[in-house]
Amino acid sequence: MHAVLLLMMMVFAAVMTGCSSGPDYKIDIIKELYYQKDKPSPFEIKVTEAGKAVTGLTVTADLSMATMNHGTVKVKFAEGKDGTYAADVKVPMNGKFEAAFLLKKDGEKTEKVIEINVVKPEGVAKINGQWITDKDVSFYKFINQLQLEINRDAARKNYSGKQLEEELAYLDSQEKVLDDQNKLLTQIIRLRSMALLAEEKGHKVEAAEVDAAVEKARGQYAQFASAQALIQHYGEEKFWDVEKQQYKLIVLAQKVQKDLVDQAKKENPKAGDQEIYYQAQKQYEDLLISQINSLKIEIL
């Protein structure tokens, strides 16, 4: 009896060893999964073991809803840098999902199950948790359209003949850019990133500064009939309310520009204005790239 019991215990131990979950990996969600109708969303995780990034894994997952039966979404991840793994995932709806991960490396398999909450996105991108909404993108499209019409009016005032035709043809070609969401997002991200940097540096914006900048913009738009017509069609009150919010960011960014101009003047006391502004602009772009890289930016 004792021999039989011992044999059974040994077999049980062998079976348990074979079902071991492998290395003790930890999975953290780097980029949350969102539900977008008929469209996949980026999903990114980071795998660590004892606080260190784990590379060289083959990562797959089965996603299923926790409370409803909508089938299983199979996901295969591609490896990125420093233990990150990403995939584009199309889920049937928002809600709570169970993600059953299978991680393989050097013949060892690890299974991990985590719960994720899939929600509808509030916009098209996030900067440090703050959404860039569809309305934000639409407004920037309108601003670009406004500038395009101003440039057309200016061309008609300053050029004639063939030169005018060429200028108007070029401006017509820029219409396509208005629908380029990536370019619009880039404009938004640049401004918001620099405004955040200005606040980090201790800069603040007074209401009077914003009001002065907005009034200056009003005066510039008033010079062009096409701009006035577009603003009226958009809704003057709505336009200037949104524009005022934009100018808070613009004034903040201008404070960083002024800091860099002052610094360039101090470092190059004999340089002319053109050289000063060139150096300041170069430093501004370098600073902007560094700032963007330091922020958590998610684009859906």
UniProtKB/TrEMBL annotation:
Q: Show the InterPro entries listed in the entry.
A: YtkA-like_dom
Q: Where is the YtkA-like domain?
A: 24-98
Q: Name one Pfam family in it.
A: YtkA
Q: What is this protein called?
A: FixH family protein
Q: Which organism is it from?
A: Neobacillus rhizophilus
Query: Highest lineage ranks of the organism?
Result: Bacteria, Bacillati, Bacillota, Bacilli, Bacillales
